[in-house]
Design goal:
By secondary structure, the chain is an alpha+beta fold. The chain has eleven helices and 22 strands. It folds into three domains: about 100 residues, Roll (Nuclear Transport Factor 2, Chain: A); about 140 residues, Nuclear Transport Factor 2, Chain: A; about 110 residues, Glucose Permease (Domain IIA), CATH 2.70.70. It is elongated and about 85 Å long. The chain binds zinc ion.
């Protein structure tokens, strides 16, 4: 017995605790609460000493850091009592079968194996990606007590597969043990991850890669600034960014990235900042949105660029600048992008024309409020547009091509006011009204607390780099 225990310890014993034991569960909860309190106080102390300008220093080194809860396993191990079960973890490997996975978990239980094979819910285990964790609780006879695996989810919560031995049926007689499988929703630990960096000669996406910014977070950043920055034309070497986003973890394992909560971009020495805010913490179905740090909505009547800015389009020979002629000669701006790149309506409006026109090739013309109109030319195709149809800002209306007078695939974009073409790149982003009154007070209380926490994170990071 003891020699086998030692062997199990040496191999992969992680936690010795019986989750079905009410006493254990209570002590575990107390322990977690105690550690949580210490953590919160630590945060408060860090905020108190954070220099106010720490977050504003654009020359600070690029860092990656996250707030993590301390690992509770050491403490939990001390809760060992007799007749404990063993909790083990294994990673899903490519080519795993039920038998190989259970074997790695130290489970020798033909009944459990048969159950997993025959139960549709339990077979969800094999939808896991290689590398994902499976936790099993095993009794002293190497029989399965329970098994858990994270089936994925969003940043806030996970879908967790639970397979467990059902009640006392096994203890009763020598009858076949019964198992149950279910999928439950569990809350994740949500961390703030902060990344920062600078745009160098390699361009925007290279900078994002160098700073390890995940693709889904990059996409959010582009979208947040789509009213004020044209990523095709405006981004230059020397620009800097800092971004804070949510990442969901369950049992210390990454589940999924969530929303960008704050982001800043220094573009041509001009500071752009945005943070996510939902009035009343999102209560009563209040919609969240991105705001500048002083409480103006980031949503503008027109996007700065009609062409989806993606890894694909930016990879086009690094040509991020207008193709040919200056704007005065041809009354529009050209966006070089591969054929098929998505073209988006820059503002809410109505389709005035869809079809072919001399020189323009395939063209969509949208009519907007206040005498504004936008033209999208040389398209390779339309996204099912019909005259009179309403379109929303950001909606895909067609695809980049080179129909009409075009020497290569690009989008010719015009922005007109009462039929007079204006240079879309020269139009200052139309400002939106700021929050006022109690809504503004609430916003400022939220944003200052959030920025304090970011400052605390930052101070910690700089300290750890210097050590
Ligand atoms: Zn053109």
């Amino acid at each position: 017995m003891w020699s086998r225990l030692r062997e199990v310890f040496a191999r992969e014993l992680v936690v010795l605790v019986d989750p079905t034991n009410a006493l254990h569960a209570r002590r575990r909860k107390q322990l977690t609460a105690a550690v949580g309190t210490v953590f919160t106080l630590g945060m408060a102390a860090a905020m108190g000493v954070a220099p106010r300008n720490a977050y504003d220093d654009p020359l600070a080194p690029r860092i990656r850091e996250a707030i993590r809860l301390p690992d509770l396993r050491d403490q939990l191990e001390q809760l060992t009592e007799t007749d404990a079960t063993f909790v083990r973890e294994a990673r899903m490997l490519r080519g795993d079968t039920i038998a190989t996975l259970l074997k790695r978990l130290g489970i020798d239980d033909p009944d459990a194996q048969a159950f997993i094979r025959g139960n549709a819910t339990a077979r969800g285990l094999f939808a896991l990606e290689p590398g994902q964790n499976v936790q099993a609780e095993v009794d002293q006879d190497n029989l399965l007590v329970s098994l858990q695996a994270n089936l994925g989810g969003d940043a806030q919560s996970s879908r967790e597969l639970v397979i467990e031995r059902a009640g006392d049926e096994r203890a009763g007689d020598a009858a076949t043990p019964a198992y149950k499988a279910r999928v439950q929703s569990v809350k994740n630990d949500v961390h703030y991850e902060m990344l920062s960096g600078a745009i160098a000669a390699g361009g925007f996406f290279k900078a994002m890669d160098d700073a390890d910014v995940p693709d889904d977070v990059v996409a959010q950043m582009i979208s947040i600034f789509s009213g004020v920055i044209d990523f095709h034309h405006d981004i230059t070497a020397g620009d800097r960014f800092r971004i804070v986003y949510e990442a969901g973890y369950r049992d210390a394992a990454f589940v999924r990235n969530g929303r960008v909560v704050a982001v800043e971009l220094i573009n041509h020495n001009q500071l752009h900042q945005a943070l996510w805010y939902a009035p009343d913490g999102g209560a009563q179905g209040a919609q969240g949105a991105y705001y500048t740090f002083d409480g103006r909505s980031m949503k503008r009547p027109f996007l700065r660029s009609p062409v989806e800015f993606s890894r694909v389009s930016s990879g086009f020979g690094g040509r991020n600048h207008p193709l040919h002629h200056n704007w005065a000669q041809h009354k529009g701006v050209d966006f070089a992008a591969p054929t098929g790149t998505k073209v988006m309506a820059t503002g809410d409006g109505e389709v005035e024309f869809v079809g072919q026109q001399n020189g323009y090739g395939n063209i969509v013309i949208l009519r907007h409020h206040s005498g504004y109109a936008t033209y999208y030319a040389h398209l390779s195709g339309f996204a099912g547009m019909q005259r009179g149809q309403h379109v929303s800002q950001g909606q895909v209306i067609g695809y980049v091509g080179q129909t009409g007078w075009a020497t290569g695939p690009h989008l010719h974009y015009e922005f007109r006011v009462n039929d007079v073409p204006l240079n879309p790149l020269a139009i200052a982003a139309l400002d939106t009204p700021a929050l006022t009154g109690p809504a503004r007070q609430q916003f400022l209380a939220y944003s200052s607390e959030l920025l304090s926490r970011i400052n605390a994170l930052r101070t910690y990071n700089v300290a750890s780099i210097n050590n």
